[in-house]
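Propose amino acids for all 194 sites.
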């Protein structure tokens, strides 16, 4: 796998989650800064995503926030990003984030985080990208997701290799080693599995 110079990290805009989620976001930010990996994220100043961006910035790292205009107007954007990109829609935001990243990390989050995960996983299934995807199962937060993905395969709505389009790790310290071990995607697109 090619070297990672930027990671798109999907995570929650709420700060009401477990303290361990906050700790994981901050540690992920420290890792990015230490490894000189640019953060590509949703541009928010609040919640887990705000904690993540703060940690990258505090460590001297580069923070690229991408936020749709309507959220920017609600004043939830982080104004001191290295670069803040304002898009016209959520769709263009997600497209831009995906284009700028060498890989994807999913930390705890809500419905928006699930939307981003499933979209980027589907794009990989369809062969639209071959970038690594790693889900961080902080304190078992994504255990139900793992079960759901296994059920989807068991019920024949996805192939077993589709389940392998992402890796699940338990800590943020496992993210980069997991990405280094991931082979390039080798999924054959077949209409009956779309």
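Proposal:
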């Amino acid at each position: 796998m090619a070297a990672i110079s930027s990671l798109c990290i999907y995570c929650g805009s709420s700060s009401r989650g477990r303290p361990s989620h906050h700790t994981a976001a901050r540690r992920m930010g420290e890792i990015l800064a230490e490894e000189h990996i640019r953060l590509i994220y949703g541009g928010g100043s609040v919640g887990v995503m705000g904690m993540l961006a703060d940690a990258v910035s505090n460590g001297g790292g580069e923070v690229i926030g991408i936020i749709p205009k309507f959220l920017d107007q609600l004043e939830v954007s982080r104004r001191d990003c290295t670069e803040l990109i304002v898009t016209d829609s959520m769709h263009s935001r997600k497209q831009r984030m995906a284009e700028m990243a060498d890989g994807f990390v999913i930390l705890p989050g809500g419905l928006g985080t699930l939307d981003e995960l499933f979209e980027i996983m589907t794009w990989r299934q369809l062969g639209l990208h071959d970038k690594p995807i790693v889900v961080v199962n902080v304190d078992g937060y994504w255990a139900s997701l793992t079960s759901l993905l296994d059920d989807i395969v068991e019920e024949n709505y996805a192939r077993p290799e589709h389940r392998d389009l992402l890796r699940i790790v338990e800590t943020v310290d496992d993210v980069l080693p997991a990405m280094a071990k991931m082979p390039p995607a080798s999924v054959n697109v077949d209409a009956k599995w779309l």
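The CA atoms of residues 148 and 154 lie 10 Å apart. The mean pLDDT is 91.
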